[in-house]
TrEMBL record:
Keywords: Membrane, Transmembrane, Transmembrane helix
SUPFAM superfamilies, A to Z: Nucleotide cyclase
Pfam families in UniProt: GGDEF
Protein name in UniProt: GGDEF domain-containing protein
Upper classification of the organism: Bacteria, Pseudomonadati, Pseudomonadota, Betaproteobacteria, Burkholderiales
Organism: Kinneretia aquatilis
């Protein structure tokens, strides 16, 4: 739990990370909008040379000033405000263009963009409402122009021959595509990074649940699974399984005389030495303070476990140079086998534990089989 708590304490919450990603996305959009306003607004106003001055051009100038103001104040505005203002601006430009220019309005892009942005930063419900509103606006504008009670503010035939009109359309299309790809790409990259971090955290938390934090050895939870798998394999192959219960001799004195930090270093050293005595398919786990459990699957005979026990005792008993001091512990080992001594994991551990206590009673630093008792 310590590893998990420290991880949570050092890492921003998921909600905070997602909010930061959303904010970066919105600020990139406003940066793109500032470019559109700075270059697109003059292009839009240039159309007045062919269409005459229209009220919608005043609106474009006003909106350009609003974009500049919002961009300058963006750090002080919340994500909800930034997205709301962006979508609102899209709708003002889009609706005014559709009703002023009819089907020739390139501002329809803005209405479509508002739905796209809503789909990225808002709920599905809000996005569907905007999409429905878009269809409604286009339907009303279309009905008005078809029915004759709405008139385009321009001569469509002449409008299509204006270089400024085409330049405005090309510019808006290119800038839209560029900044949307850039903003969405950056957001996707940030989300992938976040997912990678979450996966790493999940693995750390999962490992902390199945491995001892001090030594890195498997814990009892993982041992139970591996004993079960080893017993199943032994039943199928007709082989044997040995479980060794290892208890350190003299470790309590090290803790009492030198302190727990030194004792922890001894445990880490012992764990490393024990791993070095085993095969790749074997398992050594820490199941208590100075208690370890070794699983030896696929054994042809239980007698082979004695050699492993001797190797463990010899390795553990070697002096440990720690912080300028030479410390030493020993090991007592109890051995129980499947199917000879037990037919369940719990019974195997219990009988290996009993054999280990007999080894301690007989002088420590030795191993005993349960069957010898």
């Amino acid at each position: 739990m310590k590893g998990k708590d420290s991880l949570q304490g050092e890492t921003p919450s998921l909600a905070a990370r997602l909010t930061a990603i959303k904010r970066t996305f919105l600020e990139r959009l406003w940066g793109g909008l500032l470019v559109i306003a700075g270059i697109g607004m003059p292009l839009s106003v240039m159309r007045s040379l062919g269409t005459g001055w229209l009220p919608v051009y005043w609106l474009h100038i006003l909106l350009g000033a609003c974009v500049l103001a919002v961009y300058c104040w963006r750090k002080r505005l919340s994500e909800t405000t930034l997205s709301g203002l962006f979508i609102g601006l899209c709708w003002v430009v889009g609706v005014s263009g559709v009703f002023s220019f009819g089907i020739a309005a390139s501002s329809i892009f803005w209405l479509v963009l508002s739905c796209l942005i809503a789909g990225i930063v808002h709920s599905v419900r809000i996005t569907l409402m905007l999409a429905f509103s878009l269809v409604l606006v286009l339907s009303v504008a279309g009905a008005g122009h078809v029915g004759g009670w709405l008139q385009a503010s321009i001569n469509l035939e002449r409008y299509q021959t204006l270089p400024s009109a085409w330049l405005s359309l090309i510019f808006v299309s290119l800038v839209f595509v560029y900044f949307i790809i850039r903003a969405v790409g950056a957001q996707n990259a940030a989300l992938l990074d976040l997912l990678g971090e979450l996966e790493t955290q999940r693995q750390v938390i999962e490992r902390s649940a199945t491995h001892d934090q001090l030594t890195g050895l498997p814990s009892m939870r993982l041992v139970e699974d591996r004993i079960g798998v080893a017993m199943h394999q032994a039943r199928r192959s007709g082989g044997k399984l040995a479980v060794l219960f290892v208890d350190l001799d003299g470790f309590k004195a090290i803790n009492d005389n030198h302190g727990h930090p030194v004792g922890d270093q001894v445990l880490r050293e012992v764990a490393q030495r024990m791993r070095g005595c085993l095969r790749a398919q074997d398992t050594v786990a820490r199941i208590g303070g100075d208690e370890f459990l070794v699983i030896l699957p696929a054994m042809s005979e239980l007698g082979a476990a004695a050699k492993v026990a001797q190797s463990l005792i010899a390795a553990v008993s070697q002096p440990c140079p720690i912080e300028g001091r030479v410390l030493q512990v020993g090991a007592s080992v109890g051995i129980a086998g499947f199917p000879d001594d037990a037919d369940s994991g719990a019974e195997l551990r219990r009988k290996a534990d009993a054999a280990m206590y007999r080894a301690k009673r007989e002088g420590k630093g030795r191993y005993r089989f349960f069957s010898q008792g």
